Amino acid sequence: xxxxxxALRLYSRVNTQLKFKFDFPTQPRTKYLILxxxxxxxxxxxxxxxxxxxxxxxxxxxxxxIGSVADPGEREEFRRDPNDETALEIQNLxxxxxxxxxxxxxxxxxxCKLSLTDDLVLNVLKRHRSDWKxxxxxFNWASRCGIESGYSPGCGVHNEILDILGRMRRFHEMTQxxxxxxxxxxxxxxxxxxxxxxxxxxxxxxxxAVNIFYKxxxxxxxxxxxxxxxxxxxxxRYKHVEMAEFLLHSKKNxxxxxxxxxxxxxxxxxxxxxxxxxxxxxxxxxxxxCKPDKFTYGIFINSLTKAGKLSTAVKLFQAMWExxxxxxxxxxxxxxxxLCFKKRIPEALEVFRxxxxxxxxxxxxxxxxxxxxxxxxxxxxxxxKLLDEMERKGCLPNARTYVxxxxxxxxxxxxxxxxxxxxxNGCRMNSDSYNLILKLYMDxxxxxxxxxxLDEMERxxxxPDQRTYTVIIHGLYDKGRIEDALSYFKQMTSMGMVPxxxxxxxxxxxxxxxxxxxxxxxxxxxxxxxxxxxxxxSRRGKKKKKSAL
Length: 549
Known about the structure:
Elements: E1 5-7, H1 13-20, E2 68-70, H2 82-96, H3 102-111, H4 118-126, H5 132-149, H6 155-167, H7 171-182, H8 190-202, H9 206-214, H10 225-237, H11 241-250, H12 259-272, H13 275-287, H14 294-306, H15 310-322, H16 329-341, H17 345-357, H18 364-376, H19 380-393, H20 399-407, H21 415-424, H22 431-443, H23 447-459, H24 466-478, H25 482-494, H26 501-525, H27 538-541
Antiparallel strand pairs: 1-2
């Protein structure tokens, strides 16, 4: 049966508020629910991959075609989780009655006649992770009200509200709740202690973190090495590496140091960016009775490459092979990427060859590092050779592989061949790929191809999104088409999209420019037969300096 696909419709926040007569802080909802397991490895508000030119996701080997749905008569309706709907109603009730008294809020909740479960209570609490007051009121009401209906919040619910209180620095309420939990059997678990350690460390309350660690014994938990390592990790995560190292040495009789404890401290210094301290601690590990493992080498090699000490990193990498500590693919990838970044590509290819010879199988990230830098120096023969090898070994290229290839194209004629290969390998187009192609067509002045790509994006439910409009607005400005750029900006904001700060600055500048030109027009008309009056504005037709996209 032939299926026709239509773009997924979005309800804007404003339209929803007008329809239901209330407002809420959640994201705009889609008309049809897209199940979470269809979305591969999405990470929201991530700040780790700062080097990526796009907000692309690495794991796009699976089907990406999730942005569209079949026609109503030919599709199965996605099922909504009933807890989501109920939790949303409770969230709106708590928002509307935020300024009411606690007793008033509890009376309103009582009238809802809810069937309380851990899943529902957790759903409501997670919607208030940055707003502790309504979360705490709801939790207390659910705890008291549940007694009548036979519901009692489990350890997961208690740990969630503890985390919310700790995140908001409500340590008094947090301690009170912990004391109540301690009186009931089965509510305090390892996760509870993990929450306290993380929140105290984040608030720089080192003494309290250590005290809660030793309180384990009072509640029947062992003071074992794993629990001590959890304390060290929490301290290092929030930059208290010096204190973590002090504890490691001062408690060595109670918790004899092993290589995992040493790795935690080493990684703490490396993440902190202190190569001097990392070197000192590396030497301490080498001199100690703990033998460095591949994780120790990997942590230190990664730190060296980030600090620009590539030669030292390569020597350490070679020493691993000589000492019989076989590097894993992540360590090899770190060396290959650093060599390519320093334009030492022949050496990177030699490491790649050694990986194959020593039975350390390359992964997609290995090939992508090589392809990225080979494309930059226009060595396409080697790029296609690597692509053929990937396909032969079953290590299929992902969306990022093709993004690197598309970025190296010099003319519109090169694009279809790459897209054809992409489709042949089952790698679906995603919004980042489309936006890159749009930028290329914009730079090449291919207006027809630009329009057809936009139409295809919309048919496949991949956009246009904020990035699409940003590319078009900045591209039209570069071409001197200010009115067209402002028209797209108006269309973007009417769809509820929030422009990037740089786009807002550009739009403000364009509005000022347009206003000045319109004010100058009557003066030009009044010049009569002046020869300059018929000359087009040089400022209007002049190509502006390109903005960074």
